[in-house]
Design brief:
By secondary structure, the protein is an alpha+beta fold. The protein has ten helices and 17 strands. The strands form four sheets. The chain has an eight-stranded mixed beta sheet with strand order 1-2-14-11-16-9-6-3. The protein has a four-stranded antiparallel beta sheet with strand order 10-15-12-13, with no helix packed on it. A three-stranded mixed beta sheet has the order 5-4-17. Bound molecules: 2-oxoglutaric acid (AKG) and fe (ii) ion. Residues 196-299 form the Fe2OG dioxygenase domain.
Length: 381
């Protein structure tokens, strides 16, 4: 029964009693190893904040074009801000979505030496987001940052839960969120958590025009550790690819988040937890737009996940063998995670998706990836 035909629904409330907690952990183990996706009900994120974020989504895109363009991503060395419809390609085809990239609060890095500037361009990837001015969209930033803080806390709780579900020692995954240099930032309690920033987008998928393609976003893997997705309108369209390559619908279920595994987590668990290919189909002609809010959990930028060695119990490794082989998928693979620091993997992904931003803020990387100059569109995959 490892080839799923629906996405499991886990109830966070099971964690509140010792009698039901093991059931949650067992369901999580199944979802991690066999599916790569789950719905989470009763997550500890205030329903009023979730509703407020969902209510802001259409208002954000309804802003005058001049207000949206004032926040265009090209202004930000951190790749935050507004991208119009058609700015990105996946699998060589144009994604029909409009989006704003935001992030959790983070100051721009202050390079400590010239070597860092040269060898670690990815240190500049994190920094302040671009927010609509308060008089343009009153209250939005405060609500969204409150929401992000709660989802971030949930994402760290999940790190402990998934260590438990995979039979790892408590804290075994903490090394992904710490600077690898042992003496870089020690406190009395051991190494401090690295400077971290997570990204979150607000996305609008306009209805498909009659006779046009339906690629909201083409098949891809997330580069994150975990992704927490709020489907912020009642539209179907999200689909997840199972082991044999069939597309399984993941329609919105009110009161839930969709949680999925990114390539960073898959790589660090040597494929035990699977990143699952997914895509979004545009709403049908004549429909209203679909809105979603994905949150991408990052790991420390200097960590190379290929260097992290985790020891899994035999009985857990057996579950991976029982899963069988994955059908070939044509999604992106983020194979660089095995060799490069995670910050560089993420920066390369951004450079490929948004060459106009890269040309302006990372000219050396731009030349490396686009030796023939500016392509017509970005192409992450
Ligand atoms: O909009 C969605 O439901 C999913 C979006 C997604 O997969 C992504 O942006 O990585
Ligand atoms: Fe995704």
């Amino acid at each position: 029964m490892s080839n799923f035909s629906s996405i499991p629904i886990l109830d966070y409330a099971l964690l509140s009693s010792p009698a039901t907690r093991p059931a949650f952990i067992a369901q999580l183990r199944h979802a991690l190893i066999n599916v790569g996706f789950l719905y989470l009900a009763h997550a500890p994120v205030a329903p009023a904040d979730v509703a407020a974020v969902a209510a802001y989504a259409p208002r954000l895109f309804a802003l005058p074009q001049a207000d949206k363009d004032a926040l265009r991503m090209a202004r930000s060395p951190h790749f935050f801000g507004y991208s119009r419809v058609g700015a990105e390609l996946t699998k060589g085809r144009t994604d029909q979505r409009e989006q704003f990239d935001f992030g959790t609060p983070c100051a721009a890095a202050v390079p400590t030496d010239a070597r860092d500037v040269e060898e670690k361009p990815y240190l500049r990837l994190w920094g302040p987001a671009q927010w609509p001015a308060e008089d343009v969209l009153p209250g939005f930033r405060a609500v969204f940052e409150r929401y992000l803080a709660q989802v971030e806390a949930l994402s760290f709780e999940f790190v402990d839960l998934l260590a438990e579900a995979l039979g790892l020692a408590p804290g075994a995954l903490a090394q992904c969120f710490h600077d690898p240099a042992p003496d870089s930032a020690r406190t009395e309690d051991g190494p401090a958590r690295a400077r971290l920033q997570h990204r979150a987008k607000v996305v609008k998928y306009p209805p498909r025009a009659p006779g046009e393609g339906d690629q909201g976003v083409g098949p891809h893997f997330d580069g994150s550790f975990l992704t927490f997705l709020l489907q912020a309108s009642p539209h179907a369209g999200l689909q997840v690819q199972n082991l044999s390559g069939a597309w399984i619908d993941a329609p919105p279920i009110p009161g839930t988040f969709v949680v999925n595994i990114g390539k960073a987590l898959e790589t660090v668990t040597q494929g035990l937890a699977r990143a699952t290919s997914h895509r979004v189909l545009s709403p049908p002609p004549g429909s209203t737009p679909r809105y979603s809010v994905p949150f991408f959990q990052n790991i420390a930028q200097d960590v190379c996940v290929g260097d992290v060695r985790l020891e899994f119990p035999e009985e857990i490794l057996k579950l991976k063998d029982e899963r069988g082989a994955l059908a070939a998928t044509d999604s992106v693979n983020y194979a660089e995670y095995n060799e490069l620091p995670s910050g560089l993997v993420n920066l390369i992904g951004r450079v490929k998706s948004h060459p106009d931003v890269a040309e302006r803020h990372y000219p050396d990387l731009f030349k490396q990836f686009f030796p023939d100059g500016m392509p017509l569109q970005g192409s992450a995959y």
